[in-house]
Amino acid sequence: MMLTSLKAIALLGCAVSAAAALQLPTPASPAAEVSRRSVVIGAATAAASVASPNTTPSVANAADSTTSVTLNSGNKKAFPLASFGLQVYDDDTAYKLTLTALEVGYRNFFASVLAKNQKGFAKAVKASGIPRDELYICGTVLSNRVSGESAAYQKTKQGCLENMEAMSAGIIDHLDMIMLDYPGPNDESIRGQWRAFEEMMSKDKTVDDLAVSNFSPNQLDAILVNKDSTKPTVNQLPFSVAYHPAGIVDYNAKRDILVQSWSPLSRVLPRYGSTLEAIGKNYSKSAAQVGLRWIVQSGAAFSTQSKKKAHFEEDLKVFDFALSSEEMEKISGLAGAGVL
Fold first, then answer.
1. N or C: the chain end with fewer CB closer than 10 Å?
2. Alpha-carbon span 221 to 78, nearest angstrom
């Protein structure tokens, strides 16, 4: 496994397309995964006008074997760019899917408290027999509905303890990362959330890396204004072929923060599957693999999900090819300059 720094990965590929200002779309409600096959049925006609399987891109397609990065925390454990994110289903389903993900090679796991199945996930980790130090495990805390530094601190502290209680079902007593699902309603609330996280790391010593989700530049700076604060390592955002306003990766990279995409394909395949499939034929890759590869070459990581073993395997096979600069530009232009 080849490691690289966050700054290096941020320089990969092309810049994302233009848009007015960062405006995050509302997270979609939990739903069944869009069929990757169904959205590209009948794409052959469209493909002919986009690219030919025999077309050779003008930029060399040397495979990029970078599969993990080193985060800004200096944590020696690698952060795999491909993560399995559990969705809303019961503990038994979480158990089975986690075992499948482990079997095909996933080593980075995003187990959100919102999915309400952390116990099933933890039990699967234990049952797998895979050494804990080979896995990167992220839990989350939801504490954005309280206002004020003290209230946000207390709610977040409670969430940290609840994560460890759920994870104990699999004898997991230490997390690699804890992530805020959403920022608090104002700067003081965000700082209260962050104080609880820093205590979990420095005082409780039950986590190594701290992260955020759905944070704008100003919300990040509510933390970073204090030069002694621990810097977030990851900002999980709905970054994808369908949503990539100008600067969304850059504003994080400038703060030495890695963007991780949540829902990297759900809005992409129904809209742009035929184009991505056509490009993928140059590499014997699927539309989904091209969409994920675009994310990686744009300088970000991704957290994907599936209920099918074949799709688990498919999503990991995006590190043995590279899109040309022309292909990156074409894909970046698919969604236009607007926001969702």
1. N
2. 26
Task: Please name the amino acid found at residue 105.
Answer: G
Give the residue from 191, 248, 233 showing the smallest Cα distance to 73.
Answer: 233
pLDDT at 32 over 80: no
Task: Write phi, then psi, for 304 (nearest 5 degrees).
Answer: -115, 170
Pairing of strands 234-237, 108-111: unpaired
Please answer whether residues 300 and 82 qualify as being in contact, where contact means their C-beta atoms are separated by less than 8 angstroms.
no
Beta strands 79-80 and 66-70, pairing class: antiparallel
Q: Which pair of tokens denotes residue 325?
A: 């600069």
Instruction: State yes or no: pLDDT of 335 exceeds 60.
Output: yes
Strands (E), 169-296: 175-180, 207-213, 234-237, 258-262
pLDDT of the residue at 56: 27
Compute the CA torsion angle 33, 65, 80, 191 (nearest 10 deg). Answer: -100
- Is pLDDT of 170 > 50? yes
Helix (H, G, I), strand (E, B) or coil at 178: strand
Tokens found for residue 143: 């504490």
Write the burial class of residue 148 (CB in 10 Å: 0-12 exposed, 13-18 middle, 19+ buried): middle
- Residue 237: phi, psi to the nearest 5? -135, 160
pLDDT score for 19:
29
Helix (H, G, I), strand (E, B) or coil at 175: strand
Q: Which amino acid is at 73?
A: S
Residue pair 315/85 in contact by the 8 Å Cβ criterion: no
Give the tokens for residue 268: 């992409």
C-alpha span between 79 and 259 (Å, rounded): 12
Tokens of 171: 């004898």
How many C-beta neighbours within 10 Å does residue 329 have? 14
> What letters, b where the CB count within 10 A reaches 16 and e where it falls short, cover 178-206?
bbbbbbbeebbbbbbbbbbbbbbbeeeeb
In one-letter notation, the amino acid at residue 206 is: T
- Is the pTM higher than 0.85? The answer reads no
249 neighbors 10 (Cβ within 8 angstroms): yes
Query: Pairing relation of β-strands 234-237 and 207-213?
Result: parallel
